[in-house]
Amino acid sequence: MKSSVIVFPGSNCDRDIASALEKMQFKNRMVWHKETSLPKSDLIVIPGGFSYGDYLRSGAIAGKSLIVEEVVKAANSGCLLLGICNGFQILTETGLLKGTLLRNKNLKFINRNVHIKVLNNKTKFSSKYESNQILKMNIAHNEGNYFTSKEHLDELKKNNLIAFKYCDSAGDVTDQSNPNGSIENIAGIYNDKKNILGMMPHPERMVDKMISNTDGVNLFSSLLN
């Protein structure tokens, strides 16, 4: 399976996701933001980091980069697209995903491991997970507080487009298990066609028992499957 990772000035997780993809046997290419064409790709990843130093607002400048036009075209044609952390923010800036990422509720940067629950395991990103499986993943963000309109929230629920929710170790979705104030504990969402996933937690950091755990592995093995 061929993958492409988009690299922006300020990205700091692009090599992490590249390492995870290569570990999972993807044939990966790194694509600089000034490129005007994409290599043939089954999966495109917009990585975490602080593209353009988060000036204006997170993802705003990256969303206008030259290569993003090609990413939008590919996604609208059905290519699989994964946006992680800053990548999720960029996806909302482009309109590929609805909603926005606001400042964390405590107005502080958060970097710690949290628990999330798999709400939909019937997608190309999640088929190797069990329904309601609880995962432990790392978050590292200042603007991870997902917000959207009531109409879109109803649409997300009706069409099973909520990918993950923040929860506690027992799987309970509570205010106490919500690290950033995200509406209804949402940690990740799909688009209508479920070929685009935006998520704040970092699955690429959870693919090796030596340094973390392997709770991110099944996201990549689902894509390979």
Blueprint of the fold:
Elements: E1 2-7, H1 14-23, E2 27-32, E3 43-46, H2 66-76, E4 80-84, H3 86-94, E5 100-102, E6 110-118, E7 134-141, E8 145-147, H4 150-158, E9 162-167, E10 186-190, E11 196-199, H5 217-224
Parallel strand pairs: 1-2, 1-3, 3-4, 4-11
Antiparallel strand pairs: 5-8, 6-7, 6-9, 9-10, 10-11
Short synopsis of the structure:
This protein has helices at residues 14-23, 66-76, 86-94, 150-158, 217-224, and strands at 2-7, 27-32, 43-46, 80-84, 100-102, 110-118, 134-141, 145-147, 162-167, 186-190, 196-199. The protein is of the alpha/beta class and 225 residues long.
Explain what the structure shows.
- By secondary structure, the chain is α/β, with parallel strands linked by helices.
- It has a single domain, classed as Class I glutamine amidotransferase (GATase) domain (Rossmann fold), CATH 3.40.50.880.
- The chain contains 5 helices and 11 strands; from the N terminus they run βαββαβαββββαβββα.
- The longest helix is centred in the first third of the chain and has 11 residues.
- The radius of gyration is 16 Å and the shape is globular.
- The mean pLDDT is 95.
- Which quaternary structure do these chains form? single chain
Mean pLDDT: 95
Reported for the largest beta sheet, the result is: 9 strands, mixed
Order of helices and strands: EHEEHEHEEEEHEEEH
| CATH classification class | Alpha Beta
For the structure shown, list the relevant keywords.
225 residues; alpha/beta; Rossmann fold; nine-stranded mixed sheet; two-stranded antiparallel ribbon
